[in-house]
Design brief:
The chain is mainly α. It has ten helices and no strands. It has helices at 7-15, 21-36, 44-63, 69-77, 87-98, 106-128, 133-155, 164-181, 191-207, 217-234. α2 runs antiparallel to α4, α7 packs parallel to α9 and α8 (164-181) runs antiparallel to α9.
Length: 236
């Protein structure tokens, strides 16, 4: 299968995000920390103790009293942001993984994806602004769904009930929806999401043809640069 690895695409979307770069970097650091809870092989009871602590920590973050270095970094950028409560949905996705989440129906997979990826991207899109919150939330959810399906294709064996080609189609359509949901006036503020969507679409396109290699680092950087430059010009 064509490599769909994500760290570079995420890093590039942050790099070209402008003034929000440091905040986004810290958001993704927290997201990665939460995601590791379900992948550390911890005893069930220990993992749930961690989950409970993090649920309390997200509340403390929203209230302006964080204790963990990741949440303290976010507080330094944007204190008491009520949107941080969306991380509760991220923790619900982790809880799915702790019980051996293995979807056999598309609806089950989308339920997980919308929490594991959609919640964070909605938080980011609404926070970065440029349009009304409903529009931005819809764009963020579509972006998260596309990224989540891409990452599921990386991490898991696709069950017989779920078509790999069908997931590639749905992931691509979700990314198209994310881009299409944004009015031109929002492009400058939303260039983080536009870069993510554009790079992920290129990965998915390459994945359809096993003879094609994954997009190289240089081509991804150039694509990210062009997307961010166009977004900045459009939304100016």
């Amino acid at each position: 299968m064509t490599d769909l690895s994500t760290p570079l695409t995420q890093a590039l979307s942050v790099q070209f995000a402008g003034p929000s770069r440091a905040w986004l970097k810290d958001l993704y650091a927290l997201d990665a920390t939460l995601g590791q809870i379900g992948r550390q092989g911890l005893a069930h009871e220990v993992a749930h103790v961690k989950l409970d602590w993090w649920r309390e920590e997200i509340t403390r973050l929203q209230q302006g009293e964080p204790r963990h270095p990741c949440t303290q970094a976010l507080h330094a950028h944007r204190p008491k942001d009520p949107l941080y409560l969306r991380f509760d949905e991220r923790l619900t996705a982790v809880e799915f993984e702790l019980v051996g989440f293995a979807p056999t129906a598309l609806a089950e997979l989308l339920t997980w994806v919308d929490r594991s990826h959609g919640a964070l991207q909605r938080l980011i899109a609404v926070s970065l602004g440029g349009a009304d919150p409903v529009t931005l939330s819809r764009a963020g959810l579509s972006l998260g769904r596309g990224l989540g399906l891409r990452d599921w294709l990386i991490r898991a064996e696709v069950s017989e009930e779920l078509s790999r080609d069908g997931l590639l189609d749905l992931a691509t359509q979700s990314l198209d929806d994310a881009i299409g949901a944004l009015p031109p006036s929002a492009h400058r503020a939303q260039r983080h999401g536009l870069v993510q969507a554009t790079l992920a679409r290129a990965q998915l396109h390459a994945a359809r043809d096993p003879s094609r290699g994954a997009p190289g680092a240089l081509s991804q950087y150039w694509r990210a640069f062009k997307t961010a430059r166009a977004a900045q010009s459009t939304g100016a």
